Amino acid sequence: MTDGDRTLTRREALRAAVAVGGSAGLAACLNLESQPTETGEANRNTDPPDGTESAAELPNRQHAWTEFSRTDKHGNPVLARHHVLLLANYVDDGPVDDVDRKQAANAFRELEETYRWASDGLLFTVGYSPAYFDRYDEPLSESVDLPRPAALAPFEDPSFDTPDLLVHLASDRASAVLEAKQALFGELETANGSEVTETIDGIVELVDRRTGFIGPGLPAEHDDVNGVPDGAVSEDAPLFMGFKSGFVENQATENSVTITEGPFAGGTTQHLSLLRTELDQWYNQDSREQRVAKMFSATHAAEDLVEGVGDNLGDSSLVSETGVGDRVSDDAFEEGVVGHAQKLARARDEDGDPRLLRRDFATVDDGRTGVHFLSLQESIADFIQTRTAMNGTDVANVGGVGTKNNNGILQYITTVRRGNYLLPPRSKRSFPRPS
Ligand code: HEM
């Protein structure tokens, strides 16, 4: 595959194929994945993984991905490398009828049978927005906190996503996320070697398709994208801003984000935002030490706690171990900077655990860098509370900290879109009724 005069590396070509999508993207992926690789990159096996035979084998929590994912050498769960987000609307007005509900249930079930439920096969979730539940006369069960999306900082003006449903496809194999979309929408006769018989074609209309990636090496491949300073993103960075994220000690557990009561017990809520990142400023305006202070804390910078992308940190960002969460206003006065992770550590629950299970990933959709910030939490209130801590409004204009300047990473990110969804338990995954 070539891009102008440049020959794309294999990894970059796979990422680019996911972004392109369609039959051309899929053909390119399948071709690349059938070639031998020495990099340990997930490949399409000549003997593809079998699908999951029985739905009963799978947990009722759609979001129970961890036990089916890789872990790194420190025990941190590793998110699949390739992601596709499908925003779609039900085609009719009013409530969804039972025939269509059954059709979609069969299509989602067939997808599980087609791919092994694992990050090297296919993991997916299906979520529903507040706009979807407006189709019904009865209100959404009070056991679920699912407000309409809103601006969550005084300095942001996002657009709001209001599709009925959001399908999140994730796999280490680029071909799987592409092929699964095409199978679901009835664009293929076979997928992963099996015949496609059940689809959501005709009952939903795709309104947007977004793509992304996460993992060492993938962001560094994109110094050709607008706004990425040449050679600035380190070769082993899993995300564009150059640091590892998602340490197990700094994430909510799947258990703690699960709704425990009512008709959606076993489900969770999902927030999806699109953040644009200003990497030119991040890498050119700041020294490495400033970047560590802004991402973690001034203590992390002064004590040199973060080496490279932060793999040395093991399974914790050390925000609780260093107690920096209690020093936010002192650091604003004394250091003139407060860190992102430091501020966020203030938003933990009564047991001292993070409220969010972050499953965010990088993107170059529309030729610009950004993050599809996807997180799971028991209630959207947990997200709002966490995001409020990140706003650092209490330390804006304290010491050397401004509304955005030296206030974590706020200066380098802009929230472009926000949307809220309910991920029902697997048994209610297809067009759930509100109660
Ligand atoms: C460009 C966007 C972002 C980047 C690159 C980023 C990166 C990071 C990094 C490197 C850490 C420290 C390592 C870790 O704990 O995983 C962290 C922690 C965290 N971030 Fe972000 N983040 C971003 C946006 C957000 C947003 C929008 C939120 C939600 C409001 C958020 C919530 C958190 C939380 C809850 C923690 C853990 C805090 C704790 O330990 O209690 N992040 N982030």
From TrEMBL:
Keyword DNA-binding in record: no
PROSITE patterns reported for this sequence: DYP_PEROXIDASE, PROKAR_LIPOPROTEIN, TAT
Record-linked InterPro entries: Dimeric_a/b-barrel (IPR011008), DUF7405 (IPR055828), Dyp_peroxidase (IPR006314), TAT_signal (IPR006311)
Any one Gene Ontology molecular-function term assigned to this protein's record: peroxidase activity
Biased composition (Polar residues): 34-46
Cofactor(s) the record lists: heme b
Pfam family, one: DUF7405
UniProt region (Disordered), positions on chain: 34-58
Keywords for this protein: Iron, Metal-binding, Oxidoreductase, Peroxidase
Name of this protein: Dyp-type peroxidase
